[in-house]
Amino acid sequence: MFGARSRYLRSGRTGWQTVEVEALVSLITLGVADLARSYRFYKDGLGLPTTRRPEDGIVFFQTRGVALALYPYSALAEDVGPGWDGPRSKFSGITLAH
Fold first, then answer.
1. Strand partners, 11
2. What are the distances in angstroms from CA 35 to CA 21, 38, 49, 63, 82?
3. Which of 31, 37, 70, 75 is most open to solvent, judged by the fewest CB atoms within 10 Å of its CB?
4. Global pTM?
């Protein structure tokens, strides 16, 4: 639903406060096994615009309102936390950021 809002509690100087934020996704990160191959698919196959190359270690594609990032699967799993670089049934290789 567009325009949806979420509430969550945040600790502030005066105690817990309810904060309202717009519910939206701004970044989708895909953990990929082959960054160069995935780059070619999204850039050349789908025509998504980017200013990065696989040699940069991460590639961002800007779509309408949401950025798509390609990042090596093992590095993304490491960012998620210890022990997540396992079988794909444990970690899907996709993260969403707000």
1. 16
2. 33, 5, 16, 19, 22
3. 37
4. 0.69
